[in-house]
């Protein structure tokens, strides 16, 4: 994996049924049904909005929106903002859920390009598309999830921000019902050591998350990934591994 173009919006959004126009999750009537297929979202939202009910909803985005508008089963959907944007449904967004109320999924809103690690010509061409902030944040997020040994369905959330060479990470591991929530955060300096040049060397064996990078980004990538691993270790030391184990067992039984 090599190129990370500029990331789209990484947060989750609420699309309300039209009968609830003007509401938010907080003001919806008790018992309102929220449709989402994400265990991460359910676990976090159940903690913050216990007056609501959460039901699984399947299908592509068109199918989910049709179910909201026509089936009269759901009062709202929670979806990734990036997916809503790509469908040009901007006007349907009623509320955007940002940290700390809802940490997003690792890599949410980001795209990556896979390249052969010995194809220098292609790497040189595509290197111009790399968005450094996206690379640094996604590298930290993926290292965090890798250390937790979590998958795409695990109730694990993350928030990563890199500004003024400071990388701040906040992570959470939750039980499926949201009753348990282990959170922590780290903040480290992540600097880009040198600038790119016309004859760049590419490295593919220093990353825990299978990222090919120009040599000049080696230090930044390692600092980013180490930050993600550190955050994961902090959560594991506080019992996150057992919480995830129980969640996995419950998922397998369901």
Automatic annotation (TrEMBL):
Cellular component, GO, one term: cytoplasm
One of the record's GO molecular function terms: hydroxymethylbilane synthase activity
Gene3D superfamilies per UniProt: Periplasmic binding protein-like II, Porphobilinogen deaminase, C-terminal domain
GO biological process: heme biosynthetic process
Superkingdom, natural source: Eukaryota
SUPFAM superfamilies membership: Periplasmic binding protein-like II, Porphobilinogen deaminase (hydroxymethylbilane synthase), C-terminal domain
Family label: Belongs to the HMBS family.
Protein name (Swiss-Prot/TrEMBL): hydroxymethylbilane synthase
Organism: Paramuricea clavata
């Amino acid at each position: 994996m090599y190129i990370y173009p500029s990331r789209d919006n990484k947060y989750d959004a609420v699309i309300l049924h039209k009968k609830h126009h003007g509401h938010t999750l907080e003001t919806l009537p008790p018992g309102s049904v929220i449709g989402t297929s994400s265990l991460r979202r359910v676990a976090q939202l159940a903690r913050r909005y216990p007056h609501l009910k959460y039901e699984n909803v399947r299908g592509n985005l068109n199918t989910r929106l049709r179910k909201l508008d026509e089936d009269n089963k759901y009062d709202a959907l929670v979806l990734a903002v990036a997916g809503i944007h790509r469908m040009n449904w901007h006007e349907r967004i009623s509320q955007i859920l940002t940290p700390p109320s809802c940490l997003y999924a690792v890599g949410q809103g980001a795209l990556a390009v896979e390249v052969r690690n010995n194809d220098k010509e292609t790497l040189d061409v595509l290197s111009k598309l790399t968005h450094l902030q996206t690379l640094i944040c996604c590298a930290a997020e993926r290292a965090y999830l890798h250390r937790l040994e979590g998958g795409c369905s695990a109730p694990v959330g993350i928030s990563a921000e890199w500004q003024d060479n400071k990388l701040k990470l906040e992570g959470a591991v939750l039980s499926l019902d949201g009753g348990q929530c282990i959170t922590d955060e780290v903040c480290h300096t992540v600097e880009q050591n040198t600038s790119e040049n016309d004859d760049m060397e590419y490295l593919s064996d220093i990353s825990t998350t299978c990222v090919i990078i120009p040599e000049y980004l080696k230090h930044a990538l390692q600092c980013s990934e180490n930050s993600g691993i550190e955050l994961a270790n902090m959560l594991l030391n506080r019992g996150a591994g057992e919480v995830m184990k129980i969640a996995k067992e419950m998922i397998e039984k369901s």
